[in-house]
Amino acid sequence: MTSVVQRLRPDLPDLREAPAAFLRDHAERLGQVTPWRVGREVLAILVFLGLDVFPGWISGDWRASGWMTMALGAGYVLIYLTRLLFPALALLTATWVVFSAEHGGIALVVMLSYAAGYRIAPWQRSLLTAVLALALHMFAWGVSTPGLSGPFGQWVMLTVYCMVVALPFLVGRYAAQRNALVAALQEREERVVRERRMVSRQVRLRERNRIAQDMHDSLGHRLSLISVHAGALALDTGLGERQREAVRVLRSAALTAMEELRGVIGVLRRDEEPEEDQVRRTVDAIDELVDGARRAGVRVSLVRGGQPVPLPVKVSHAAYRIAQEGLTNANKHAPGASVQVTVKYEPDALVVEVRNNPPRAKLPSGGGFGLVGLGERVRLAGGMLHVGELPAGGFRIAAVLPYEDTAAAGDEPSDDPVDVEAPAKPTGIRKWAGVGSIVLAGIVVLVVVGGYTWIGSQPITKVVSEELYDSVAVGQPEAEVMAKLPGGAEPPLGDIKSDSEPEPAGATCQYRVADVQTYSSRGTKIVRFCFAGGKLVEKKTHLQGM
């Protein structure tokens, strides 16, 4: 037989189809909008507007005019809604806008970080987004808080990034992975139940065919012999009228039993599949099947060859089921890959083939029963089925079906139990889905808490009390004043010279932290002693902004 199975070269990604696929995907998502989702979006907008813009509970004492506040709120809403199409872009924009200015927006960044972690599926894109967000945060931090520098300032900057960006991002990624795992398990369970029913149905059909064949070959043969012998006996001239009547009753009973046996055999051999389904879903309906797959977003092509030949209903229906199962498996296990369906009329058989390119991302494979039922269907139609991976990657389902309605080879009953493949155990990827994200989130929290615990445990001795400040007077010798000032460790406040007035010309100043601080001062109280000509020429206090 002429071979029609040819190797399909992998197709390069078609960039022209990317915008259409993008719009089609989001149009489908827009069609799934429910009142609950709209209400959730409105509630989220009200929350971050209340926390960041209008009352500004998080943004601090920053205040602006009414028009400025309205414009800021509209900009925040626009950035928030952008996440529905471009979550990474929305997060990066918000990171720069919020941390490079004084108007705040922590709640907005937290929501966008969670959304980006939830919506960005590939880990490469997730890592790139997190790195870019860190870089923008570092630049914005240098612009908005120049006074908070040094090791402590860098630690505060890293802490803000971890708690506001990294932690929500990891939690969102964990939630997305767990939801995807739950959805995959539910789909797998439904598919296993459906395929088990298919296999059970095929087993029942085989057993019924075996029983019908046994009844036809054994019981039907015996009843035919009884009927023939009874008919011959009725012609015997040596029988009396009473015996002839008994023979006629016997022959009538045998004929009636044969008719009833034919009815029982017909019931046993009747397929449970509706006849109109086999008539409608034929090899000619594969075109509609391919068109439906295209409308669903599958890149599929149909190749027909040879001169069409009239096919038996069973064979034509089996060809349709092969194409249907191949498209279903390709869309399920190789999303985004191109698929080719081939239907070719060879001189002695019909060849149906479905092959797909390798998927863009490696998906865990699992055992199923769809191909098992398909193989049984092809066998009952008298054909052969080949299923396997291609040398260059991808997958292929190919079947050779006869033009005539022949009995399948091997229809004879078998005493061997049916070997039903058990579902594969979850792979490590599925088993540990989301664990990496939540572990990283826990590490982030431990590092931040541990760092601040260590900082808080360090002794601070380089502070000035009120008594010491009052005991120092302008004009005192520098050596006497320096002897009173404490040394040792400074509080981790970064550059304590920030926000101070210009130093007197020609003077050298010493800065210390006051030991009395108040929460209402909105800053840290710093004292300054300036010396010139060996004497104290100025002592002042100022607040270092927070």
Overview features:
Heat Shock Protein 90; four-stranded mixed sheet; 4 domains; 55% helix; five-stranded mixed sheet; 546 residues; rod-shaped; disordered N terminus; alpha+beta
Characterization of the model:
With 546 residues, the chain is α+β, with helices and mostly antiparallel strands. It has helices at residues 17-31, 35-52, 66-82, 87-99, 106-119, 123-144, 150-234, 241-269, 275-280, 286-295, 313-333, 370-380, 428-431, 435-457, 466-471, 478-484; strands at residues 300-305, 339-345, 350-356, 384-389, 395-401, 463-464, 508-514, 523-532, 535-545. It folds into 4 domains: 34-190, no CATH class; 208-269; 275-424, 2-Layer Sandwich (Heat Shock Protein 90), CATH 3.30.565; 463-545, Beta-lactamase Inhibitory Protein, Chain:B, domain 1 (2-Layer Sandwich). Helix 2 (35-52) runs antiparallel to helix 5 (106-119), helix 4 runs parallel beside helix 6 (123-144) and helix 6 (123-144) runs antiparallel to helix 7 (150-234). The protein is rod-shaped. InterPro entries: HATPase_C_sf, HATPase_dom, Sensor_HK_TwoCompSys, Sig_transdc_His_kin_sub3_dim/P. Residues 207-272 form the Signal transduction histidine kinase subgroup 3 dimerisation and phosphoacceptor domain. Residues 318-404 form the Histidine kinase/HSP90-like ATPase domain. GO terms for molecular function: ATP binding; phosphorelay sensor kinase activity; protein dimerization activity.
